[in-house]
Amino acid sequence: MLAGCSDTSPPSIVPQQEVAAKIRLAISEAGSGESDDEGAVEAVRTGWATIKGRFLVEGTAPTPGRLTVNRDQEACAPGGEAPLDPSIKVAADGSLANVVVYIRGLSGENVHESAATPASDTVEFDQKQCVFLTHVCPLQVGQTLLILNSDSVGHNTKIGTRANPEINVTLSVGDKATFVPHKPEKVPAPVVCSIHPWMKAYVFPRATGYVSVSGEDGTFEIKNVPAGIDLSVQVWHETLKKFEKIDVNGEQVTWKRGAVKLGGPLEPDEVRELTVKIPAKLFGS
Q1: Which residues 6+ apart lie within 8 Å of 225 measured at CB?
Q2: b or e along 51-90 (b: 16 or more beta carbons within 10 Å of the residue's beta carbon)?
């Protein structure tokens, strides 16, 4: 859905728009060489619901170190201070950022129109002081990733996708490039710069908009998910290799290979909240 846009189209056009969105989704799924529809849901929804929650670290969280800046220090480490390692970002209250939550295996009538069609055609991906400004960047198949260089030095941007052809471009100061994924990726794809090897981020092309990345306050939200059917919900974090014996809403559970246990289908209009507390010892284990 596009916020702030009024619908002045004749009523007869609306069904055509819905059909177009479904055709676009079907094409992107059919073209994927990855088995993203593993365990695909075939039951028909009974309505729409919301999954939201928050990720927290229990115990003493790892302290991020400074990145090793070995060239272009004036631009990359102004004042002699190198940027912090962004791979583990934990706030003072334990909130964990950059956890990816996404839903797999949905298609057709089980995908809400707001998740079938992206809200915008372009997603910006910029870099400043030799750090990618978005550490984990989700986008949908067919969207354009606009890669910018707002730095005072040149950069190289390599996106290591598997389902899509890799790109490897050099960007001079103020330059830009584009990347358009045509297939969904199973996991986030790393983005690196060969000129400044400490730089790293991730982009995550998906067939639908059913993906959320936890913010600095640890929160995430996925709206308009299908109710009444079993959902295949997955989590991913750059440094967490396992989600073992974590606390979810006061109960100890294990999400094997990152597969979230929701406890059954959602009811129509339900907002299912998950407060996830991750033991600090799991980082790097």
Answers
A1: 48, 49, 50, 51, 103, 112, 210, 231, 266
A2: bebbbbbeeebbeeeebebeebeebbbeeeebbebbbbbb
The tens place of each residue's pLDDT in the chain, 285 residues long, gives 333 333 443 344 344 545 445 555 554 444 444 445 444 546 889 999 999 999 999 999 889 999 999 999 999 999 999 999 999 999 999 999 999 999 999 999 999 999 999 999 999 999 999 999 999 999 999 999 999 999 999 999 999 999 999 999 999 999 999 999 999 999 999 999 999 999 999 999 999 999 999 999 999 999 999 999 999 999 999 999 899 999 999 999 999 999 999 999 999 999 999 999 999 999 976
Q: Which amino acid is at 28?
A: S
What tokens were used for 254?
Answer: 């294990």
Domains and CATH numbers, the chain: 42-61+96-116+209-285 (2.60.40.10), 69-90+119-207 (2.60.40.420)
Which stretches within the chain are classed as H helix?
Answer: 13-30, 73-76, 113-116
pTM here is 0.85
Joined together, the tokens standing for residue 129 give 């002081």
Residue 53's beta-bridge partner residues?
A: 220, 274
Round to whole Å and give the CA distance between 199 and 148: 14
- The identity of residue 31, as a single letter, is G
Question: 185 forms bridges with which residues in the sheet?
Answer: none
Residues counted in the chain:
285
